Amino acid sequence: MKMICCIPVLALILFGEMVEGTCNSNLGSSLLGDLIGMVLKLKGSDNGCCCLNKKTTPAFSAILTKVQSLGVKDTIKFDKVVTNIQNGYNPSSGIFTAPMAGVYQLSTTVMSHKGQKLVVHLWYNDVKMSGGWGLGNQHVQATINMVLELQKGDQVTIKSRESNNVYSDDDNYTCFSGYLIAQ
Ligand SMILES: *[C@@H]1O[C@H](CO)[C@@H](O)[C@H](O)[C@H]1NC(C)=O
Known about the structure:
The chain is of the alpha+beta class. Helices cover 22% and strands 41% of the residues. The chain folds into two domains: 43 residues; 124 residues, Jelly Rolls (Sandwich), CATH 2.60.120.
């Protein structure tokens, strides 16, 4: 496999040297540069993948800026949007809705109120995917990370398990982020 991958690169180098051998060397190296550039561009446009394009790749980050009191299965409403490419995240509901199908990385960090228990779950539509637990004499943080294959319109939320307070303040201790990895 490695050899096969190397062939186009070797061919380019050889071609570049041939050009350099026969013509003016500035022309040779600029041609080689153009060819390598073209090959890299072709590789980058793989299947029309939207990845690595900052205007089209769904990506969001939102912060909770204050304490939120939560009832059983209440959704945390991360109120301050920092990034929201493709507008999948809605700060008034706290729901992330996949703007397109694909594999997404999703994560949250939550902080408990001093001395109080906080249990949250990352939900994928109606499925509880993974839990985070914080309890201690001081504020405690819990983090959840998941990679999920989402269909367009699928929803991801962070919900409390019980009646709890989730803590945050100007230091942005509680946040929710996600982004598309691959289509
Ligand atoms: C909290 O987030 C806001 C953006 O929403 C930013 O301006 C501020 O600097 C952040 N605070 C800290 C302590 O990082």
